[in-house]
Write a structure and sequence with these properties.
The chain has one domain (3-103). Helix content is 81%, strand content 0%. It has helices spanning 3-20, 27-60, 63-71, 75-88, 94-103. It is globular.
């Protein structure tokens, strides 16, 4: 894992936890999710990865918490940085990253 990845994971975890007012994610959990995502992608392809990510969001956060995160001023910035990191980690392709970035508002 690259040092910049750890730094970004730390910033993202702190931001999410501060917005939600609880310890919802940690750097360790983010690492675990990335490794699981790689495995899901290898074994099931892009569609399986999409299903995994959707289920993960529902497991980690309530619908109200998801809305809180989306309203955060740093939501777009951090989302885009994490998407770029997923490309570096070879979880998604650059083309998929562009589509995801367009979807993040």
């Amino acid at each position: 894992m690259k040092p910049e990845a750890n730094a970004l994971y730390e910033v993202a975890a702190q931001h999410v936890n501060r917005i939600l007012g609880r310890r919802a994610v940690s750097v360790r959990r983010i690492h675990h999710v990335i490794e699981q995502a790689k495995q899901v992608r290898r074994s099931g392809g892009a569609f399986a990865l999409l299903q995994y990510s959707t289920e993960l969001v529902h497991r980690l956060f309530t619908p109200e918490e998801v809305e809180k995160l989306k309203q955060s001023p740093r939501y777009r910035e951090l989302s885009h940085r994490l998407i770029d990191l997923m490309v570096e980690e070879q979880v998604i392709t650059r083309r998929e990253a562009l589509m995801l970035k367009r979807a993040v508002r």
